[in-house]
Fold each of these.
Amino acid sequence: MDTKDIGIALSGIISNGNLIKQGIKFIPPPVGVWRTYKIYEFEDYQFFETWKNCALRLLSTEFKGDRCIKDFEDVIKEMKNTKYPSDMDKLLGILIACEEIPKIEKDQNPQEDNNIPLITINNTQNQTQSQEIVINIFIEAIKDELSGKQLKEIKDIIKEEGNSNQGKTIVIEKLKSFGEDILSNIVANIITNPIVWGHF
């Protein structure tokens, strides 16, 4: 991704992170129980897990070698339901810092002649990374809805038929046979992915 695309993706993830933080709920103690600490829960824990993994994937692909990845992972490892609000503040702070000061790649092999301008072409690399993110979003959306056996059946069809019109038709029919909701759920998983959602 170029800097603009990274900014758009981060903006979407930060926006969803704020929604997650706003949805954190305080769990009051049961009647007759006194606690010296507070306990919280996420309104939608699955949404938080998806958001967390998308954020990590974006940081890992676009900020390789940057300390933001370890900082983000460290907060995740130490997260407890007694401090969800402050932990979300830390995670959002890391993402906002990446958005405000995006990583700038430097040429590691400067030419000897300083009078010749250096031109770095990253188009192919950026396109490849963008394609990998898109592919991973689709694969995760499919894996979330299919059982291991169903996924194996789809893989077998792809191996046998390849990228042919007949193969596509057989895959669609097979997905339909798994249940009416499968296709709509896969599409919903893709649309509600934080990276995709941020572009709407």
Amino acid sequence: MGASSFFALCSGLVVLAPSSGAFAQLMAEPVSRPVTLAFIGPPPASRTTYQVPDHLEVGNQMFDGSLSGFRTYLDTTRATNPQLFSQLDPQVRELESKATAARGVAVAGMAVGLFSGVYAVAGRKTCNEPPITDPNFAADTQAWGACNSDNGTHIATFMLLGVGSFVLGWIGWYALSPSRSDVLNLVNAHNRISPEPIRLQLGYDPTNRLALGGVSTAF
């Protein structure tokens, strides 16, 4: 090794030594910079849509804002105000009959739909595939194909009948059921003949004692 080469090697070691010491010192020193940790929690709960409850308020009593709630209130007047009860009871009975008929149509539609769905599967023919050794293989194969085709038609027909029955039952229930306007008409009829009016209370749930911005409306 020549003098010049030895001198260059020594110079390189002198240069690397401080760098290596600085690197070791840097690695030994604790990190002083702040570290931000992000914790990913569970996703926020899905929003629940609350329907503002409505109730019929008479004095200090509250009833559900429906036909059944009005019936409950009207029954309380049977002894205290028999004249009021006798005037409103026929109208309530008529609406209750409509509600009963609506439930009957819905149940009938569900029953027919369920029976049709079961029969679509259980009422299929038994189709036996002919073996290759069958002497009438061609004719029996054709009969087997026709049997499968009949089963397909059978299933499609009764499945459609079942779905149609469900839909018609729901439509009949919706059409025959007393509407909100029917209940409001009862409230109006009551307030025309009673000194103590019924008020429609919006935004209070007496079951959960939850107030959602109460609004009281008289009819």
Amino acid sequence: MKTCLGCKYAEWKKNKDGRLHPSGDGKCTYSYIVPEPPKAFYFFSNYIPRPCGGHINRRGKEFNDHCIYWTKIEELKEEK
């Protein structure tokens, strides 16, 4: 999918009453671990780089390409 609508990893900002916030803002909650590179490779600093971003919006435009981690919300309910 080219949007985060319907994705189980989309966490949308909500009002105090639990309804979706009108801003449409949210964040992607997909987490992954960057594998350690082979010992022949190294980074210029002492830490493994971490990705930045994760901001999503229900009202924003589509991504240029499909997200490979997009998973339908119903699949999350079946896992329980």
